[in-house]
Amino acid sequence: MIDGILIGLAVLCAAYFVVIVVYAGIGTSFAFIWLFFAALLLFLVYGKWYYARNLDRIPGWVPVSVVTTCVAGVAVLAMLCVLVFLGAATSAKSNLDYVIVLGARVKERTVNNSLRKRLDKAMEYAEDNPDTILVLSGGKGPGESTSEAEVMYQYLVYNGVRPEQLLIEDRSESTVENIAYSKVVIEQHRKKNQKVLVPLRQKTTSVPYAVAPDRPLEIGVLTSNFHIYRARMTAEKWGFDNVYGISADSDPVLFIHLCVRECASIVKDRLMGNM
Known about the structure:
The protein has 275 residues and is an alpha/beta fold. The protein has helices at 2-24, 33-52, 61-88, 113-128, 148-158, 175-192, 228-237, 255-271; strands at 98-102, 133-137, 166-169, 218-224, 242-248. The radius of gyration is 25 Å and the shape is elongated. The two termini are 41 Å apart.
């Protein structure tokens, strides 16, 4: 029974790898993980068979350690997937002060499908919230002739978004840099547009004017649905107190793969202290 389940899962993993390669190309990031999963499942089937025939030669702690490690790995992956799914299901908050729109790789100034979905969501949000400033975040990576932010700007302006509603951050090359450099852009914009309070000279009290406390800054992070959780946690790590996710659709065929890849990125960023 268990052997049949493991073999069936291995076949599904291998089949999904083929689907990914045929659908998105052999160079799809992290696609090899599905072959690794398939090989691991088949190894467990073989290990179970080998152990049953060599009970007197293999110490009991070996299968216990293997099973414990596998169960722990599945539990961690399941927990991370739940966090990713919850982030993907988030609903957008209206009238945010700024929305950071995370970029994605461009080729020959062409917007790919993933980035187009983000920008279409940004256009929808900008239309519904005309006072919100969009921060377009994305630098020029290897093989890119222009920055992602510049391509995003041209796409949005061409499709009717007002240029004065847009800010450009064109230095970042990762999610962490997206947030860090966007924070600098936001702070510079706020400083530039800060109102100067002039004392009321006719008053004779010890307090010539009253200063109302600033409303807490509310920031949105707009990215693909599978990426929301990590982007929000990164923004909070970099000092944004009120962060809200705005979820753009991702490719339904690649969604499971993208979520698994995102789990690995969450672990990496957590270990590196980025979130």
